[in-house]
Every structure is written in C-alpha cells, then in structure tokens.
Amino acid sequence: MRCSYCSRDAIYFQRHSGKHLCRRHFTDSILRRVKRNIRKFRMITRDERVAIAMSGGKDSVVLAHMLKRLYGDRRDIELVAISIDEGIKDYRAPTLEIARKICRELDIEHYVVSFEDEFNASLDTMVEKGERNPCTYCGVFRKYLLNRKAREINADKLATGHNLDDEAQTILLNFLQSDIERLARLVPSKVQKGLVPRIKPMRELYEQEIVTYAILHNLPVSFEECPYSETPVRAAVRDFLYDFENRYPGRKFSVLRSFEAILPCLHEKYPQISLNECKICGEPTPREICQACELKRELDLS
Ligand code: SF4
Ligand SMILES: [Zn+2]
Ligand SMILES: [Zn+2]
Asked: Which residue has the least CA distance to atom 6 on ligand 1?
C-alpha cells in the first residue's frame, strides 16, 4: 500500500484519519500533533527547564526522544529526566537500565531517586508491611518524590508520558465511578506554590502510535508489566474503549474533546483549593498533613 502523501510504501494505517503513512509521514504526523498539543496548552514556553518523568517504559522513552527532536536545538529549553526507583523486584532494575541508556544516548541529564533511600523501605517492603493496594503506596510516594526532585533541580515543568488511551480511560473511569471532582483536577486550573506543573505532551497520541514510533526509531523499550498491576475496572474500561475505537475510529479523541468542552464548567463547580505546606515535611498538600507523611506514619517509616 502506498503512503497517502507520497510514493513511498506505507508502514502504518491511521484509522482515525483513514490515511496510510510511510515512515517519514508517520513521524511527521505524530510530531506535529505533539507540538500542536504543547502549543495549545502552552506546556513548554521560552527559557524553561523541563523534567521528564522517566520510568524506562515505552511512553517515557518515546516522550524523551520526541522532546529531544522537537527542542534539542533550542538553547533556551533544557531537558532533564527523573526516574523513581520504587524497589519492585525483577521489574524496576531492567527498566531503570533502559532509562539510563536512553538518557545517555540523548544526552539528557538523569536523576534517580529511590524509595529505599528516601523512606528506608522499598515498595516490596511497604506492600509486605501494609494493608493497602500496592498502587496506592507507589502512586503517592512516586508523585511526592517526582515533585520534590523536580522542584529541587529548578524544573519549570514535569512532563509525563500519558497517551490518548490513558487519558480517555481516566476520563471515562471518573464518569463511571462518579468521581467528577477528580475529573476536574485532571487538568489543574492554576499553578500552585510548591507544585511543579505537570504536562502531558503525548495526550493526543494513541498507544499504538507510540509503540510504532518506538519500533521505527529502534528505541530500547520494555513491554514488561508491573507485577502489582491489577486494576480490573481500568482494564474493563480499556477493553471497552479498544473495542469501541475499533468499530468507530476516532472515539478516543471524542472522549478527550468532550472532556475539554466541559472542563470550564468543571473548574467552576470545583474550584481548585489553595494548597498548604504539610506540617511534617513542608510539601504542598490540600490537608494539614500530606498523604505521603500519612502513609509513612501508617507504615511506621522514618
Ligand atoms: S502498577 Fe506497579 S508501577 Fe504502576 S502504580 Fe501500581 S505498583 Fe506502581
Ligand atoms: Zn509518505
Ligand atoms: Zn508531608
């Protein structure tokens, strides 16, 4: 099959646009979409230091590669990367190795922060000690460390590798669970003191496009799943969206667009509350004590 734009062979069929794309036009189309999304939400502006949350999974590796291509020759934009080593046996070490490798190859300064160093316990130990779902410990402590490290190294933005599939799932999941306040917080309405603004440059890229980009550019990615990943409701929403998108291409975009259309109303109904400094660690929190300090106390960690 020929590319819809040139005479080369197509390597990808973009179902939502009905276009067949060669390697070059596929990459152009993806980068253009990422750039448009960055501009639309003013995610990266002049003279900024952008920290990439680098897990070593396919999304973060592709994100780093794309940002380097888009901003590598801009002298006023600096890219750095932060990896969090949660301490998940047999899973984190290989992905961290990939993170180190890609940062070396792209010449991106790389910081690694570990649960063990910061909390004297790996995620595996926390899971053994505590009663909560592993993803609760992981999510709370990872966000906490990412934000703290990003602030310490004077990053202006913290870029994460969320893609269209992730975003559409989260939006739908919040509707299905009637958690509209959380939905409103998916895109913060204002910058909060102490909180490095998060950006999602790939929020309009399908996961399939990210995988294809990784393969086309020979990127060292891992497709390993975390051994704790067990979120049946999200998996059901993912499967539903996959099936729906297959039958009616473009529907994941529709979910995102509908969300953007109602976002101003959501922000009006659930205005963002100003954050306090946690009484124990000083990190930003809507409460008196931040969630990380609460979990630390619960787990009896120093
Ligand atoms: S699936 Fe694994 S890496 Fe992801 S939040 Fe849960 S514990 Fe952490
Ligand atoms: Zn082409
Ligand atoms: Zn705290």
From this structure: 135
DSSP state of 287: S
Mutate to test the pocket of ligand 1, among 170, 229, 231, 238 (most ligand atoms within 8 A of CB): 229
This prediction's pTM: 0.95
- Look up the CATH number of the domain holding residue 142: 3.40.50.620
Q: Is the CB of 72 under 6 A from ligand 1?
A: no
Rg (CA), the chain: 20
Number of structural domains (the chain) is 1
What backbone torsions phi and psi does residue 43 show, to the nearest 5 degrees? -70, -40
Of 67, 162, 169, 84, which Cα lies nearest the Cα of 119? 84
**Segment-wise mean pLDDT, segments of 10 residues, the chain, 302 residues:** 96 94 96 95 95 96 98 96 96 94 97 96 96 94 97 97 96 95 90 94 96 95 83 89 95 96 95 91 94 95 78
- Identify whether 29 is part of a domain: no
Is the CB–ligand 1 distance for residue 134 below 6 Å?
yes
Domain containing residue 195: 41-299
